[in-house]
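Appendix B, Record 12. Input sequence as logged:
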Amino acid sequence: MRRTARLLSGTAFAVAVVGVGAVPAYGGSAGLPAAHLRGPSAGGLEVYPTSVVPGGQVTVNTADCGDGGTAAGDASAVGAGAFTLAPSTHEGDAIGQFQVPPSAQPGTYEIVATCAEGGRRVTGDLVVTLTSARAWVHPRGSVKTGVGGALGPDPVQTAAGVAALAVAAAGGTWLLHRRARGDGI
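Logged structural output:
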């Protein structure tokens, strides 16, 4: 018994240590990817969402152009052309938007921004897919399992079945009550 307790507590300790040391691959909050919630050491051009369907809107931002800096964006790789990144209040980032053309083909595209002051070039990747990761398809119809309703979809038959079950439950409860009182059957 004592050996089993030690083994179990040792296993629990090992699991706790491994769990504390593990770093989540997706560290985002409120549905945003971890790259969008960067710390001061991160850089480059952040693309959100990182995966988009043709015709979708994309937002890019960078802190590499300095506080109040602007940049010229280039999304011509995906066919969207030039766009402007303007200063924002979000951690001093320069932020811009563009729309992916409906004719864009699936693939990974490099989006580029060149800072107006200093000419620094920053890049980020955009993945174009044919299906949206955020679009949920709700199932419709039924599954033919061979196990179906015995009474069928008729509401009158369903009500009759429910009434029969209620009478049976009431009768069973009455019999159990009599037995508990010692009246016998």
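Confidence is low (pLDDT under 50) at residues 1-42.
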